[in-house]
Amino acid sequence: MIDKPRVRPRVRRTVNLHLLPSAMTVLSICAGLTAIKFALDHKPIPAMALIAVAAILDALDGRVARILDAQSRMGAEIDSLADAVNFGVTPALVVYVTLLSKWPVGWMVVLLYAVCVVLRLARYNAQQDDGTLPPYAKEFFVGMPAPAGAVSMIGLIGLKLQFGEGWWSSVGFLAFWITGTSLLMVSAIPMKKFHTLAVPPNWAAPLLAVLAIAAAAAVLEPYLLIWIIIISYVCHIPFAVRSKRWLARHPEVWDDKPKQRRAVRRAHRRAQPQRRSMARLGLRKPGRRL
Which of 111, 173, 243, 262 is the most buried (most CB within 10 A)? Predict the structure, then answer.
């Protein structure tokens, strides 16, 4: 009987996927710091593009960590530090080098912006461990998030690249805009977390069409697209404030799904004219004691 040679089992070499989210965060830091290098070389377009890349990586690393069940305390700390670099230090330096290096007040306003980003991130991290917040608080940011602040900053460079010199590139307007952005980040104004929004089925086709238009605009008119995004974000703020106030007054819907909440809000809106007319006539609801 001939002995068959033993075949050694193949050893499968697998990559530790738990490192992937942290690797994406490190890459985002590299993109942010490289954006500063391009700004110093007087190349604002690659600098803006790298800030956008850092923002995309920042949006993806947390989701990848949740999908792979790779969330860790170290990853959270790296992510927070990356946000401070990519959306605080980097936009401040890029805008200063590109637009404000000729004026002493320029350094003051970008310094204010960078400090406000750090304060905003510190408050956000502290609120993550606050168990006293109501359930609906997870659906809102407190103040403008740091990535939105970075988009607001690079939008100033986009105006100059699109239209050249003008009042939009004056030191007065730049200081006003950067100061306003900084104060919005450390304010207590609620702003909606868009990943918590539920899209109704009948809105799916129009939103996909808008996405296609935005993709075309990103190629043809990228600077105008940045300002469309900025203006749309600012316009959503009153709706976010109203939504949070409504949720605070209706704890019975805190655990409901978005579809059920919308039904309750529609019912309340339909009932409002009736309540107003009853109040004008001095009437009260049946069953209510005088």
Answer: 243
The encoded tokens of residue 240 equal 């976010």
pTM recorded for the entire structure: 0.83
pLDDT of 286 > 60? The answer is no
The average pLDDT across 1-30 equals 67
* Top CATH class, 18-194+216-271: mainly alpha
Cα of first residue to Cα of last residue in the chain, in angstroms, is: 105
Least confident among 102-116, 154-168, 207-221? 207-221
Cα separation, 62 vs 271, whole angstroms: 42
Contact yes or no for 126/93 (Cβ under 8 A) = no
Spatial distance between the Cα atoms of 2 and 17, rounded to a whole number of angstroms: 44
Task: Output Rg (C-alpha) for the chain, integer angstroms.
Answer: 25
CA distance 109 to 146: 16
DSSP calls for 200-223: -GGGHHHHHHHHHHHHHHHHH-HH
What is the tens place of the pLDDT at every residue in 113-129? 999 999 999 998 888 77
Task: For 180-224, write each residue's pLDDT tens digit.
Answer: 999 999 999 999 987 777 677 777 788 888 888 888 888 888 999
As to burial, measured by CB atoms within 10 angstroms (0-12 exposed, 13-18 middle, 19+ buried), residue 69 is: exposed
Rounded to whole angstroms, the Cα distance separating 176 from 192 reads 24
